[in-house]
Amino acid sequence: MTIASGPPAPSAAAQSAFLEAIGRALPEVRLLTDPVDREGYRNDETAYLHAGLPLAVALPASTAEVAGLVRVAAEHRIPVVPRGAGTGLSGGAAGIEGGLTIALTRMDRILELDRENLCVVVQPGIINAELKRAMAAEGLFYAPDPASYEICSIGGNLGTNAGGLCCIKYGQTRESVLGLEVVLADGSVIRTGGRNVKDVAGYALTHLFVGSQGTLGIITEATLRLRPLPPPRSTMLAFFASLEAAGDAVARMTAAGLVPVTLELMDRATIAAVDDWHQLGLDRDAEAMLMIESDLPAAGAAAEIEAAGAACEAAGATSIVQAADATEADWLRQARRLALRALERQGTVRMEDVGVPRARVPQLLRAIEAIADRHGVRCATFGHAGDGNLHPNFIFERDDARAEELTEAARADLYRAALDLGGTITAEHGIGASRREFLPAQVGEGTVEVMRRIKSALDPLGILNPGRVL
Questions:
Q1: Residues 172, 296: one domain?
Q2: pLDDT (tens digit, 9 = 90+) per residue, 320-337?
Q3: Rounded Cα gap, residues 405 and 90, in angstroms
Q4: 239 and 191 fall within a common domain
């Protein structure tokens, strides 16, 4: 699949003039122009998308440098792609031919920890896991928890409104953002929000920028909500003879009002792939597994896990086991985080991201199975079943010439199935470039037009990540 990258690539003369202008205006900024260096910034994790080669890659060290780069880009009408760690799964940070990629990896500091107000001010390049560890050392907790937390950046999380394993209890990234510093398309800098827990002064601009994938502005600083560090989690695995039974267990927990910190699903193919790699002794005969965790204090955790176990038994669980200690729980959680990598050992994987209202998880699971069968595609499904977000993974032999064709056909059916169930074509990975053509089917042409007006108001030249989202 080729990414449509917005406007045509600037002429060679325009590109040369732009690079010279950066050199004059920002001589201290590290700028990569060698083709070998730029190649590493062509794709994000959606390597199957055919992206453009950036004209240059800038690695600024401050907000002022980002603002300067954007001002020069605006003067020369050069497209700008903001980029974090490059772990995105929608093509949102992929290169644009003749464009400038601004990689924010050098802006990776914790600027201030405000204990009294339970918040922290960070730059966008810091890795999610590094922030978590730093806060844990202070007895505090940053909740957003993408599966790729060891390698993804906070800026990328903000750009996509990333989800993860804890969303069922703590929400997506947006719920943990109090304020932002943003460089706009003309190089000006604004601040939104602050350190107030409640703030309704004007439009909710903070929430507008979170999830916009760099199409409205470039986030250079974020004030994030913290919580007291919860106790170690209690972890339980439940195995089922069918995907429908596992989905029924999720629906029963939802109906019972249970809100565990983690409620994750893996199907039989994923169980086998993870167990082949990590040798955890999982039940390979089961068609599905749920991982359920509680981070309540001891008595509360015991009660929550017991109630979840009762819901699983009522749904027909074939076996239920609890982690013996925190170390074993960590192993199991890490195995779930690496489910995609385990599947990638078997061939080329096309990971998808759909969501439905939680009570409709059983119907979505049935639809995924039917779609894979109809197209003759191997499919392994895992995901955040507790909030209705599943990741079907289409698996192909590495030299399968039909992989792209089959993926396009299967994903179109997958999106239609999710929408028919009142769901979404992307629950956490973002529209980016890979799902753009399907956005109107979910939100309607009228809503897309409103989005276009917002984009035009904030980026009248259309230089910020053109061809993404819209």
A1: no
A2: 999 888 888 888 888 888
A3: 18
A4: no
